[in-house]
Structures are given as structure tokens and as C-alpha cells.
Amino acid sequence: MNVDIGGFYADGIAASLGPVAGLPGPVYQISVYVPQPSDFAASNPYYQNFVMPPTVAVSLEVNGARSQAGLALSVK
């Protein structure tokens, strides 16, 4: 599984498939760390003062299948 948040690879914490109250059928849930671009500043000075915008694109790839376009995440 690969998760990109705002074009940055997100390290995964957990993934599970199961029921979620209020939703029909099983739901694939993932937990990831939101990457901090400033962590990459040592290897690329461009990221020194980079701040994620309030809303960033999210994409997920599992076994070669990619998520639909238009997914977004609010970052605080």
C-alpha cells in the first residue's frame, strides 16, 4: 500500500477491513502519518520554510489499483 499526501509519501501506521457504524458493507480504513516537508530540508533546501496548504490531495495505491481522483485531506 502506498499513500501520498500532497505529493509526499506517507508512512503507514495501520490498515484494516471491517464494518463501520452507519456505513453499508466492509470499509477499508488506513492510518498514516502526515509528512512534514520541513523534515526533508536537509536534503532539499526548498523545503526549509515549506508549509502544507490547508487542503492537500491524497492518493492511495493498493496492489496496483489507485484511488479515484479528487480525494483531499484538511491539514492543520
Taken as a percent bin, the fraction of beta residues is 35-45%
Major sheet size, sense and barrel closure? 5 strands, antiparallel
Number of domains: 1
In terms of per-residue confidence, which ranges show pLDDT below 50 for 5 or more consecutive residues? none
> How widely separated are the two ends?
24 Å
Please describe what this structure looks like.
This protein has 76 residues and is mainly beta. The protein has one domain (2-74). It has no helices and seven strands.
Note the topology.
Layout: E1 2-5, E2 8-9, E3 12-19, E4 26-32, E5 55-62, E6 65-66, E7 72-74
Spell out the key features of this protein.
76 residues, mainly beta, 5-stranded antiparallel sheet, 7 strands
Short description:
With 76 residues, this protein is mainly β.
